[in-house]
Amino acid sequence: FVEVHYITIQQVGNVPITKGDFQSLPHQVQTWLAQMIQLCAPRAVYICDGSEEEAEMVTNKLVERGTLTKLTKYENSYICWTDPRDVARVESKTFIVTNNKYASIPHSREGVKCVLGQWMSPSDMKQELDDRLPGCMAGRMLYVIPFSMGPIGSPLSKIGVQITDSNYVLLSMRIMTRVSSEIWKHLRHNEEFVKCLHSTGVPRPHTQKIINNWPCNPEKILICHFPDIRKVISYGSGYGGNSLLGKKCFALRIAGRIAYDEGWLAEHMLIMSITNPKGEEKFIAAAFPSACGKTNLAMLTPTMPGYTVRCIGDDIAWMRFDKQTGELRAINPETGFFGVAPGTNMKTNPNAILTCLKNSIFTNVGETADGGFYWEGLENETPPGTEIISWTGERYKLGEDKTKKSSHPNARFCCPARQCPIIHDRWEDPAGVPISAIIFGGRRPEGVPLVIESFDWKHGIFLASQLKSETTAAAEHTGKQIMHDPFAMRPFVGYNFGHYIQHWLDFEKDPKNKLPKIFHVNWFRLDENKKFLWPGFGDNIRVLDWIVRRTNGEDIAEISSVGLIPKKDSINLQGLIVDWDKLMSVPKDYWKDDIEETLSWLDGQLGDDLPHDIRIQIEQQKQRISQI
Ligand code: SAT
Ligand code: MN
């Protein structure tokens, strides 16, 4: 036998296809790709199939170029230092584009700057993009990444295709989403997919200096969403939240809008299960603003004996009420964790550490001289004197100079969820898991008790609407200010926030829906010496246990002016020294000011879009507080 290989050289316009078969792609994908290839003018096109060979090829290229360095201490793991100007989400450059401004953002009161999303008109955005996209990939490879958010083929899942000129983004997308050529088979004739275009904005030959082999164009960053046509365009940044478009852009902003249209929810929530000593398992979803410990909570190691926690997801939940049973069923649309590294250690989150010991990418953390990762929080697990190379390339010996910082505060690990020692065996169940309780929380140094249960659904939505938190390094905000972050979705809502709150309220109208109980937690209350009143981390199981018992209807709550709070001694505090009264108090002066401030903020931001039910809730809370 003589084997004959027929090699067809494919081109789109005059751009060669290096890998993959363009002609065999679904027709609607070909049409869009052809336009984008023409627009971005790359040197070649690479259609990804999700294979291991592909990962190897791309990894080798990145290592050769110096963008990634192999961490020799672990298997298939790499460290990456970005341009120091490209380290977090850029909310000020993130836009929603719709014809009608108020489809994207609420009718804020005159003189109030809306912080619940930014709108740009299609014509203004066209100008911005015309200034950026033509030829933006010149001299670079254009990667086509087919991916599924949610298990491939599940009725709850959605398909996306991302184009990018960054192979760091390709590698990270392979960890965070399901990248596979299988995807094409699931895109039926003319079926919709989410179109994601990403460019670092550095065509060749480039005039700017490239720092750390990390191409980016910080002056021109633009992240825009077209929810009506299910499209995302991101330019100028390689940082995860700006560039892994399956994540915040698609799974929250675009999916949120699809969910609004179709009657479900796309939320900034972890999903976990708790099994008590009797073997009863409950699933909960919990929303916290970025960098407030969702990953730690989702993988918590319980300090109470007999309890088991298992993780389904740490950042995003897609949830819908089952038409037959009325249960709220949730899936994690992602396949990886993109977690904040600093502060993570074998004490605070052993499961996260164990998850990222292979097949992981570490961005903007420090490196030990023996090829390991290092960040603030690992000091007790790393021998003093260990030589560290910081994310800015500075060398120092651990313990010698306390002012040295190894990592950026928003440094991230990116690791496959399947490697998590406590990943739930149903984490990829296409039907999702039934949610019994929804928790909202933030960093609240003052005034806010450890846990509050809402009186009812509407009151729970009010609790979520008044969510606030101290700012963190996940976005560009500086200083420790308390910011409103309703539903922990302030940066992630893809449509009018008033409509979003109303959408939540409306689930009560269908009597078939089994509404989960809603809670508010605060692990971060401080005493007068600025010391945490609650130990947090593994001890949060004590609060989760109380929450689960409440979902079982146990009589362990009492009425306060801000919601139901635990009766004294109803939370198991065995072995802890805690000042219960300080932890649980509801100071009248604080809440009197707080409700006024909340009303003024919500009214200013949402104007007439603030749902009437929320105004009633505010009035009722005022009444209750005045009676303290
Ligand atoms: O947006 S990221 O995925 O980078 C992290 C976050 O802000 O939640
Ligand atoms: Mn997040």
From TrEMBL:
Belongs to the phosphoenolpyruvate carboxykinase [GTP] family. Monomer. Residues 264-624 form the Phosphoenolpyruvate carboxykinase C-terminal P-loop domain. InterPro entries: PEP_carboxykin_GTP_CS, PEP_carboxykinase_C, PEP_carboxykinase_GTP, PEP_carboxykinase_GTP_C, PEP_carboxykinase_GTP_N, PEP_carboxykinase_N. It comes from Adineta steineri. Its cofactor is Mn(2+). Its EC number is 4.1.1.32. One of its GO terms (biological process) is glycerol biosynthetic process from pyruvate. Keywords: Decarboxylase, GTP-binding, Lyase, Manganese, Metal-binding, Nucleotide-binding. GO terms for molecular function: GTP binding; manganese ion binding; phosphoenolpyruvate carboxykinase (GTP) activity. One of its GO terms (cellular component) is cytosol. It holds the Pfam family PEPCK_GTP. It comes from the Eukaryota. This is phosphoenolpyruvate carboxykinase (GTP). Residues 32-259 form the Phosphoenolpyruvate carboxykinase GTP-utilising N-terminal domain.
